[in-house]
Amino acid sequence: MPASKTTKKPVAAKPGKPARPGKPAKEKPTLSAVMRELEKAGSEQTRKTYARHGASGPMFGVSFATLKTMLKRLGVDHELGVALWDTGNFDARNLAVKIVDPAKLKPADLDRWVGESFTAARMCLGYVAMLAAEGPHAEAKLTQWLGAKDERTRASGWILLAQLAQRDESMADAVFGKRLEQIERTIHQAPNAERTVMNETVIAIGCRSAGLRKAALAAAGRIGVVDIDHGDTSCKTPDATEYIEKAWAHAKSKGFESPAAQERARELPRLRC
Q1: How does pLDDT run across 190-244, given as a tens digit for each residue?
Q2: Which of 192, 233, 238, 259 could form a disulfide with 251 if both were Cys (CB 3.0 to 4.6 A apart)?
């Protein structure tokens, strides 16, 4: 008699695990919330420090260490950055230049921001120039700003040139060599604010390549001492020759081809300070 087959009972399906609810979407920070945070973080001592460096208009006095912490949390938020800038508040603008997307800034935006920086400390002009250096309109703004009638716009142009010397490898050294000759001819007759950044641009150009190092050192020697009034601050005018040589020695000791190559390996200056 054939062995009977054992009939297997169907195994009941295990109940499925309930789906895990997704993480709630991160709430987008509002302009009013960020402004309240900035106001809370301000201090009288920092306001005094910024005022000594030429800052004017509404400000809370927020340290750059606090802005750095906020930047890490906020990340890139172009719309919020533009809204912060448009408040006219000094601290809001310092945060704005850190969180906007340089690629989204139009030529008219850059011109407006440079113009609106005139009543703020020089650092705002520097940040706008840095944004221009990172965006698609850098070379056009360089020519336009350095040819401007007002000294503050020209100062932005020199800062932009210094940034490009340090960071844009695609530009020919000859561009910087011609501007170096222009600085040598005009620096002693330039207004104080422009003279400051022209001296710093000599240093930046001298840090770009071996050939420009030689040219900048020769130009610095012919320029001699640059007389700059730093107002009620502890700032001092850097000696271009000394600074260039120290920068090259330090870069070489760290294994970099040039100080510019070392700078390119670092975080962008508008984000790190």
Answers
A1: 999 899 999 999 999 999 999 999 999 999 999 999 998 887 778 889 999 999 9
A2: 259
Q: Are 204 and 165 in contact (CB under 8 A)?
A: yes
Q: What are the angstrom distances between the C-alpha of 92 and each of 42, 64, 100, 129, 201? A: 11, 12, 12, 17, 28
Place of tokens 């006095």: 61
**Do 265 and 258 form a contact (C-beta atoms < 8 A)?**
no
- The C-alpha angle 192, 195, 201, rounded to 5 degrees, equals 150
- What are the angstrom distances between the C-alpha of 83 and each of 21, 78, 80, 106, 265? 34, 9, 5, 15, 31
CA nearest to 142, candidates 154, 131, 128: 154
Quote the CA–CA distance of 13 and 54 in Å, as a whole number. Answer: 74
How would you class 116 by CB atoms within 10 Å of its CB: exposed for 0-12, middle for 13-18, buried for 19 or more? middle
Estimate the crossing angle of helix 192-206 against helix 210-223, to 10 degrees.
Answer: 140
What are the tokens at 95? 């945060």
pTM for this prediction: 0.86
